[in-house]
Design goal:
about 375 residues, alpha/beta, Alkaline Phosphatase, subunit A, seven-stranded mixed sheet, four-stranded antiparallel sheet, 15 strands, about 20% strand, Regulatory_RpfE, Regulatory protein, RpfE type
């Protein structure tokens, strides 16, 4: 019997109302999205759950995402200046020689789109950068990096690493945090930010007409026209977040390795982790299915993804809880700005009165979280 399952679900809370020019709010889109959501399993879980820790703040420009801060808090790391790079490097190197005591930052190849009057960072997941492409792009800037005294490690095509000391500590947003936005407010800041921008500009010029990008554009793919620097810090001791971690995210994989947890790639649905129910232990799962649709503001697709999560994860997890195959289930929901935990145990499912009255309206719970400050 599995003892405790934690489902981390980023971008699962619809966006709160935008503030209009008069300082008022227009919540029409939020209400429309909530009306179209049909999440019977998640709804039952939320209305039977005991609310756990909930994030409250009024800063819309935090440089980390809510689920990143939640993970950092669980691991005892700084939630404001998240040291994700050394843990991602640990995961990309599969723990081999990764803990060298040095501070590292992630240098990630990205595509920056030129809109009419500003620049927009595109979701790095859309690049699908291949190893041979990454190798050719690195070779093109090898001389530049060498002249600048920058040592580059590239254990994965999509994530490269440099010593943080090259540019010193910078205030930097993770790429997913800045994705889809005018990058001006999310650009790296710090004492040596100007040095970083000089190198970034030179890399951009080198790659502008590179054969890799010519071929990608001819194939209808995004060009790799810039790099994004973030996540600087050192590897630190972290607790075991669960006996087994199931995720495709490099930061969480690194936390699992650093904390001594078993790691498995994310399965397509809850039923694929059935063997764990027999062996027992706790598990933590990161479900990112709704992220791309949310960031791209494709709300029809977002609703589809949320419905799929309800059918493939929340409903079978609820069934396992009802059958006694699972002792406790924690769901961590996150929107664009905040996160909240909800924990359900088997005995809670019999407390039908929790599903009555205002607390029993799961749509109201999501709406409240969308506005939470």
């Amino acid at each position: 019997m599995m003892t405790h399952l934690t489902l981390i679900v980023p971008f699962s809370v619809p966006p709160g109302a935008a503030i209009d020019a008069d300082g008022g709010g227009n919540d029409a889109m939020l209400e429309a999205l909530l009306r179209q959501l049909e999440l019977p399993a998640l709804g039952k879980l939320l209305t039977r759950a005991s609310p756990g820790p909930r994030e409250r703040h009024d800063d819309p420009f935090l440089r980390t995402l809510p689920h990143e801060r939640w993970l950092a808090g669980r691991a005892g790391l700084d939630t404001a200046r998240l040291p994700s790079a050394p843990f991602m490097r640990l995961a990309d190197m599969n723990a081999t020689g990764a803990d060298d005591g040095q501070a590292w930052a992630c240098l990630q190849p990205v595509h920056i789109h030129a809109a009419r009057d500003h620049l927009v960072l595109m979701n790095p997941a859309q690049l699908g950068l291949r190893e041979e492409e990454a190798a050719a792009l690195r070779a093109a800037v090898a001389g530049l990096l060498q002249e600048s005294g920058i040592m580059l490690e590239a254990p994965a095509p999509a994530r490269w690493y440099i010593p943080e000391a090259v540019f010193g500590p910078l205030v930097a947003a993770s790429p997913l945090r800045a994705t889809g936005r005018n990058i001006d407010i999310w650009m790296q800041a710090g004492e040596r930010a100007r040095d970083w921008r000089r190198i970034q500009n030179e890399i951009q010029m080198t790659w502008h007409d590179h054969p890799v990008n010519q071929a990608r554009e001819a194939a209808g793919e995004l060009s790799v026209n810039s790099v994004w620097l973030y996540g600087g810090g050192t590897l630190q001791p972290v607790p075991r977040l669960a006996d087994t971690v199931l995720a495709n995210d490099a930061f969480l994989r690194g936390l699992a390795l650093a904390g001594g947890a078993a790691y498995l790639p994310l399965p397509p649905r809850f039923s694929a982790i059935g063997d764990m129910q027999a062996t027992g232990g706790s598990a933590m799962v990161l479900l990112e299915d709704a992220a791309e649709a949310y960031i791209g503001e494709d709300w029809g697709l977002w609703i589809e993804r949320m419905h799929a999560l309800d059918a493939e994860w929340f409903a079978p997890a609820l069934a396992a809880l009802e059958a006694g195959q699972l002792q406790a289930l924690t769901v961590m929901l996150a929107g664009e700005h905040h996160h909240a935990e909800f924990t359900v145990r088997r005995a809670d499912l019999r407390k039908f009165w929790r599903g009555l009255g205002q607390r029993g309206d799961w749509r109201a719970l999501l709406s409240d979280l969308a506005y939470a400050a």
